[in-house]
Amino acid sequence: MKIVGKTAAEIFDSIRQLAQSHRLAPGQALPPVRELAQTLAVNRNTVAAAYKRLVGAGIAVTQGRLGTVIRQPDAPAEQEGGQPDSPLTDLASGNPDPAWLPDLSALPRRPYRPRLYGEAPVNPGLVAYARQWCANACPDGAGIDLAHGAVDAVERLLAAHLVAGDKVAVEHPCFLSSISTLRVAGLQPVGVPVDAEGMRPDALQAALDQGVQAVIVTPRAHNPTGCCLSARRARALRQLLARHPHVLVIVDDHFAMLSDAPYHAVIPAQARRWALVRSVSKALGPDLRLAFVASDAQTAQRLRLRLACGTHWVSHLLQDIVEDCLVTPDIQARIAQARQVYAARRAMLADALAAQGVATPPGDGLNLWLPLPGDSQPLAFALARLGWLVRGGEAFGVEHPAHGLRLTSASLDAATAQRLAADLKRCLG
Q1: pLDDT tens string for the chain (429 positions)?
Q2: Which letter does DSSP use for residue 163 in this model?
Q3: Where does the record place the HTH gntR-type domain (predicted)?
Q4: 409 to 92, 100, 344, 345, 348: CA distances (angstroms)
Q5: In whole angstroms, what is the distance from residue 33 CA to residue 39 CA?
Q6: Which single residue of 35, 145, 158, 204 has CA 20 to 30 Å from 152?
Q7: CATH of 111-326, one of 3.40.50.920, 3.40.640.10, 3.30.750.24, 3.90.180.10
Q8: List of E strands, 148-229
Q9: CA-based max dimension of the chain
Q10: CA-closest candidate to residue 409, choices 400, 418, 422, 398
């Protein structure tokens, strides 16, 4: 194994090839900067720059006095979704209730027209809908684009502005898919704790002091906790972000179509790079994976360049279905009913738990969060023995584990909620 090169780029390429060919094994230490600089007869700053680039690319990690080592491969990350073959009552999936998804067979059939390269990438009807929907939620003059759901939108937005190694502020605990997105992109998540009112301003200030280049905020139905930004908290975050106009602000309002909570704007007028993401997947079903993206002109232009690599559009067949759902009165009435049902079921479970002396934070969405003082695994195992499948909170941790349980309430009935609350109390007791 021999590292070669005279420039930072050459040294970087040499080490990268050695790591990719496993001649440098995961966990193996690289030579100290001074030692390698002497071996290669180059300046120490040249080696330091190469090592910094290796860390930024996710090939190596710095470990303080232990120096720089080849990064260990990431362990498989947990994914959202249920386990259809499990005999347990599933409270872990995070899924909407299939009974409240629209019946697409009832949609009026529109004549098929093939779309060709060069045509408008977004249906005019969807552009008009998005402009009206987002009018009071973000700064004026937004460009309107589409992505394949909120997770795809966030990934594309980050890739449009950031490079591997950049730091991104996210809520702690954090949505599983956001953690995976940052990991795959080689970005460094910086966890910002949330409370009952959302992301904490003092913790966000600390993240900004670390040099984060982007902030991802969930204004309503935060996953996993369900917390929603209060008007006071949104104002505090907006004032804080106004002092950092270069930071990319992504507002992931994924539950907007079903939320029972008011929306409070976070994006400051001074922001130069911002985006508001609103998905239809929770209301229309995960298979109708489409999200509206309203953003500033520069971000919209960069996003379209990335979309152009995939023919610059979300399938117009999918767009046609979503557009028909948004203008069909029966489906809109059903979505309005679903909003009430989900809010009622969440409140029902929270009340049942409270009656047993088990407190959960207020919020909105398909899930409740039960904070725990330590590891959730013993409680999850105890509940499994009683027939319950729950999601342990540690997987939602950013820089350290998040101790708690996430309970999906979307499909619960009253009797099941009461039985779960009693079993939880027994296991906790």
Answers
A1: 689 889 999 999 999 999 988 889 888 899 999 999 999 999 999 999 998 888 877 788 887 777 899 888 766 566 676 677 788 899 999 999 999 999 888 888 888 888 888 888 899 999 999 999 998 899 988 999 999 999 999 999 999 999 888 999 999 999 988 988 998 888 889 999 999 999 999 999 999 999 999 999 999 999 999 999 999 999 999 999 999 999 999 999 999 999 999 999 999 999 999 999 999 999 999 999 999 999 999 999 998 887 766 667 889 999 999 999 999 999 999 999 999 999 999 999 999 999 999 999 999 999 999 999 999 999 999 999 999 999 999 999 998 899 999 999 999 999 999 999 999 999 998
A2: -
A3: 5-73
A4: 9, 13, 10, 6, 9
A5: 10
A6: 204
A7: 3.40.640.10
A8: 167-172, 188-195, 198-199, 214-217
A9: 74
A10: 418
DSSP-derived pairing of the beta strands 214-217 and 248-252: parallel
Token pair in block for residue 165:
């190694």
* Angle, CA 299 vertex, CA 293 and CA 301 arms, to 5°: 95
**Residue 30: CB atoms within 10 Å:** 22
Pair of tokens at residue 347 = 């409140």
What ranges in 221-328 are assigned the alpha helix state H?
231-242, 281-284, 297-308, 316-327
Counting every residue written for the chain, the total comes to 429
Say which residues have a Cβ less than 8 Å from residue 274's Cβ, sequence separation at least 6. 138, 139, 248, 249, 250, 251, 267, 295, 296, 299
The CATH number of 8-70 is 1.10.10.10
Fold category of 89-97+331-428 in CATH = Aspartate Aminotransferase, domain 1 (3.90.1150)
Look up residue 54 and give its amino acid.
Answer: L
CA distances from 178 to 134, 151, 152, 359, 423 (A): 23, 7, 10, 27, 32
Q: What is the pTM of this model?
A: 0.87
3-state secondary structure of 214: strand
Domain boundaries, the chain: 8-70, 89-97+331-428, 111-326
Q: What is the DSSP string of 324-355?
A: HHHH-HHHHHHHHHHHHHHHHHHHHHHHHHHH
Taking Cα atoms as reference points, which of 400, 406, 399 lies closest to residue 380? 406
